[in-house]
């Protein structure tokens, strides 16, 4: 590695080639940079040696921090959400595409100076690679709305633009993949399930403890007390990195898992159950109506035989 202070080696998984990923000026690794080269990644892990277990990197405010203050001497592997991880294992950990062959997408540029023109915008972003589209969104009067879109010809240029901060015409702007196009990564849950709670652990206790891992947007413990709670992070990758682990809070071992919302399949099952119930009610109601109708039917007409002219004839006669 040419410069251990500016780049770190990252690999999709063991057995694959490493790629040197650029660090920020403060020595941290941005999640935007990492996901630009490895889409769908939610964390990083490493080993002290070949016999030690994996350790997770600390993630705070969208940035990975060096283990024990130094990146030197470590090699890092990507952490994927559970479903994606199983998929990689089933394919012997061989991704189908490298970052060089991935398709580019429109990038949204937020916080643009209102006086900026498309020409000035192109002149700045062309330093990262050839652009095929530059657009500033404007209102009906032709005034800039303060954001726009760019698109690069190749994926490596897109990755470079996503992996850096941008200062355009004396103003910091943000470049990111629009939420509607982030795919699977945008659907990764931000909420974790906290089990084994005791009654002396409060919402402020959970907030204080888990805030060391990242920004928290909500903490909830159901009432009446049911021995579990939920913590929601601003960054989904933080939530994913904590799953399937035990954490000690106020001397109590809490188990963390993914808080999955009710799936469409569960909702479909609920609707199906309701339909079956209504069908049963309808069927039972029709059966009851049929039985009532039978109860009100006229009694059977008795038969009486009578011999006439040597023949036996049946005579129908009403009852008494």
Side by side, the strands of the main sheet go: 2-1-8-4-5
Beta strand count: 20
* SSE string, helices as H and strands as E: EEEHEEEEEHEHEEHEEEHEEHEEHEE
Task: Give me the Rg, rounded.
Answer: 34 Å
* Oligomeric state of the chains present here: single chain
What is the count of helical runs?
Answer: 7
Q: Report helical residue fraction.
A: 10-25%
Q: Which stretches of 5+ consecutive residues score pLDDT under 50? A: 84-101, 263-267
Which band does the percent of strand residues land in? 25-35%
**Which structural class fits the helix and strand makeup?**
alpha+beta
Q: Largest sheet at a glance?
A: 5 strands, mixed
Broad shape: globular
The mean pLDDT is 76
Compute the separation of the termini in Å.
Answer: 112 Å
Which short descriptors sum up this protein?
320 residues; 25% helix; single chain; alpha+beta; five-stranded antiparallel beta sheet; 20 strands
Protein described:
This protein is of the alpha+beta class and 320 residues long. It is built from seven helices and 20 strands. It has helices spanning 31-37, 82-90, 118-125, 155-162, 203-210, 236-242, 264-295; strands spanning 7-11, 19-22, 29-30, 43-46, 55-56, 59-60, 63-64, 76-79, 107-110, 131-138, 144-152, 166-167, 172-176, 191-195, 216-220, 228-233, 245-249, 252-258, 303-308, 311-316. Helix 1 (31-37) packs antiparallel against helix 4.
Task: Write the topology of this structure.
Elements lengths: L6 E5 L7 E4 L6 E2 H7 L5 E4 L8 E2 L2 E2 L2 E2 L11 E4 L2 H9 L16 E4 L7 H8 L5 E8 L5 E9 L2 H8 L3 E2 L4 E5 L14 E5 L7 H8 L5 E5 L7 E6 L2 H7 L2 E5 L2 E7 L5 H32 L7 E6 L2 E6 L4
Helix pairs in contact: 1-4
